[in-house]
Amino acid sequence: MRVKKFIAFGIIIMVVITAILLAVPFLSLEYSQEGDQKTIVAGESFFLYSFSDGAVYTYINGTPTLLQQTGVIKLTYDGSSIIESLAVSGPPYVGHPSNFTYTQLFKMSDTLESVSGFAQTFINSLSRSDGGILSLDGSAGVVSGTLSYPYHIPYSGANQTIAHYASSIGYTQPFVVALNNFNETGSSENVPFGNYYCYDYAGSTNILVSMHLVAGTSGISHFLEELIGYTNVNKPVIQVVNFNMQLIGTNTVLSPLDLGHYLEKFLLVEVLVWIIGVLYLATTVKMAKRRMKPKTGSR
């Protein structure tokens, strides 16, 4: 009876240790999200993105010119509208013709109607059903399952505010909207090589977490026309060569979490706990049985 109680107690201890190890990553994420919004709240929820693009701009001396620019865009949800702040920088361009407009650093702020196609590319309540066809600012997309790898921001810079909001995103598993009819040439349509958007969600609201338009794309979407057009840099844009955008910070809790990442966080430790624990129990029980075994022999 004592042996059975000992085994039961040992198993309980291992179960408790395993439960604690499983809970630690989720508790850590919950701590980093302390104070964040569970759903989008008017006037309080914001989303910070970074983007880069290579685009062929207006002809210079008869030659299409490729200039790459990078930028940061912040969206603040204000109920019926979205306040947008944008900062874009490009490389210095020396010796351009006098009739060629080039701005190396551009900043602006604007208020967008939340029902506009541009705004709904970022924040919308469209169906997440696999196979569903969505209209996103003039581009037709098909919901194509979930991203095959978790989305997260590995920020390691010195800005503690960005570090906090990046870590509070955690590891999520966005659903993919593939732009299968996007006008492209010579490129694959398979994620992560094709044209696609990825969305997490907060409650019933979808939130853009990444966007990728591949090299070889001829023409640009309404969304990119508006985004790049905002900068008033080097217009008109002839062709977008490569465009990437990713969410790098938000004060809104995003779902769904990539449970596999969190459950596997201490998997090796959990396995070792059970291996060592079972070996210890087996050895201890075996020794106990030997001591309890009655001795036989001559008197």
Task: Describe the fold and architecture.
The protein is an alpha+beta fold and 299 residues long. Helix content is 29%, strand content 31%. It has six helices and eleven strands. The protein has helices at residues 2-32, 117-122, 160-169, 222-231, 259-263, 267-292, and strands at 46-60, 63-77, 81-89, 105-113, 123-124, 133-136, 139-146, 175-178, 196-202, 205-213, 239-250. Strands 1, 2, 3, 4, 5, 6, 7, 8, 9, 10 and 11 form an eleven-stranded antiparallel sheet that branches. The longest helix has 31 residues, at 2-32. The model is unreliable at 184-193 (pLDDT under 50).
Features:
single chain, 299 residues, alpha+beta, eleven-stranded antiparallel beta sheet, elongated
How would you summarize the topology of this molecule?
Blueprint: H1 2-32, E1 46-60, E2 63-77, E3 81-89, E4 105-113, H2 117-122, E5 123-124, E6 133-136, E7 139-146, H3 160-169, E8 175-178, E9 196-202, E10 205-213, H4 222-231, E11 239-250, H5 259-263, H6 267-292
Antiparallel strand pairs: 1-2, 1-11, 2-3, 3-4, 5-10, 6-7, 7-8, 8-9, 9-10, 10-11
